[in-house]
Amino acid sequence: MVGIDELDLPAASITKVAKKALDNNALFQKDARMAVTKCTTVFISFLTNYSNESARARGKKTIIADDVIKGIQELGFEEFIPRMKDMVAGKRKKTRDDYDDLQVIVIS
C-alpha cells in the first residue's frame, strides 16, 4: 500500500484551481503551492476513506456520489452538501439528456 507521503496531485492542476480562487493580483509562492498540494492530497485521502466506509455500510465496494456526500458530512463540511447535491443532480440530468440524444441518433 502506498503511503500518503508518496502521493501528490499534479502541481499544475492545484495551481490552476487555486489561481481561480484568488484575485488576479494575488501571488502564489512555491512553498504555498506545495502546502496546498499536500493538504489537498490529505483531504482527498480522508474523504475517500469516509466515502469507502459509507459504501461498505451499504454492503457495496463501489463508492457512489451519495457516499462522497456522506463523507463530506462526516468531515464537518455540511455547508457544501446542498451545492454538491445540486451539482450531482445536474450531472445526472445532463447524462440522461445525453443518453436520450444518443437514442435519437441510434434510432434515426
From TrEMBL:
GO MF annotation list: chromatin DNA binding; protein heterodimerization activity
Subcellular location: Nucleus
InterPro entries xrefs: CBFA_NFYB_domain, DNA_Pol-Epsilon_Subunit, Histone-fold
Gene3D superfamilies: Histone, subunit A
Transcription factor CBF/NF-Y/archaeal histone domain mapped to chain residues: 8-70
GO biological process per UniProt: DNA damage response; heterochromatin formation; leading strand elongation
UniProt keyword list: Nucleus
Listed GO CC annotations: CHRAC; epsilon DNA polymerase complex
Record's protein name: DNA polymerase epsilon subunit D
Species, as recorded: Paraglomus brasilianum
